[in-house]
Amino acid sequence: MPFSSYKFITMKKILCFVFLSGLFAINVNAQDTQKKASPLVKVSEKIASGATVTIEYSQPSVKGRTIGKDLEPLEGKIWRTGANDATTFTTDKDVTIDGQTLPAGKYALFTLFEGDNVTVIFNKTWKQWGAFNYKQDEDALRIKTKATGAATASEKLNITLDANGVVTLLWGNKSVSFTVK
């Protein structure tokens, strides 16, 4: 085969590779821009005590399912307080939560619903998927609070944090609050 024919075949292969690579890159980029089923949400506030508190969570939707039956939280089971990775709670200074001390740091935020009684858990192992590897002996703090009826049902999990340090979780027809100082 003459050298010029070999060069032409190689050039065709290179162009084909470049074209297919471009198509792959466009497809990957298009997937990244699609709306996620449980998008990542971040709320952050400098509270009255001077600490900056940040909560990051993936926001699930009810989508016609029944919370407590087809959808977490399930009665008596640890919940990641969101979807996907465990929800994280970060504070840059020591704080008190409902009167109990939580040292500065990053924590996984779990909840345990038992009727209207809710245990809010700050776990030292913040980087974990869901609550599958949750270990109680890694808890930094547990507080007890109550779930109340929400004024309006929330299709998506919403966690709010105000400048007074009030954290509120709204999910379905339930509302759970605690105060960070």
Give the SSE order as H and E letters.
HEEEEEEEEEE
End-to-end separation in angstroms reads: 80 Å
Low-confidence stretches: 23-30
What value does the average pLDDT take? 88
Give the domain tally: 2
Summed up, the helix count is 1
**Which structural class fits the helix and strand makeup?**
alpha+beta
Radius of gyration (CA) equals: 23 Å
Q: Percent of residues in helical segments? A: 10-25%
User: How many β-strand runs?
Assistant: 10
Could you give a short account of the major beta sheet? Answer: 8 strands, antiparallel
Strand content: over 45%
The backbone outline, from C-alpha atoms, is globular
Secondary structure elements and pairings:
Blueprint: H1 3-33, E1 40-46, E2 52-58, E3 78-79, E4 83-91, E5 95-97, E6 100-102, E7 105-114, E8 117-123, E9 139-161, E10 166-179
Antiparallel strand pairs: 1-2, 2-4, 3-7, 4-7, 5-6, 7-8, 8-9, 9-10
Describe the structure in your own words.
The protein is of the alpha+beta class. It has two domains: 34 residues; 140 residues, no CATH class. Helix content is 17%, strand content 47%. It has one helix and ten strands; from the N terminus they run αββββββββββ. The strands form two sheets. Strands 1, 2, 3, 4, 7, 8, 9 and 10 form an eight-stranded antiparallel beta sheet that branches. A hairpin with a 2-residue loop joins strand 5 and strand 6. It is globular, with a radius of gyration of 23 Å. The chain starts with a helix and ends with a strand.
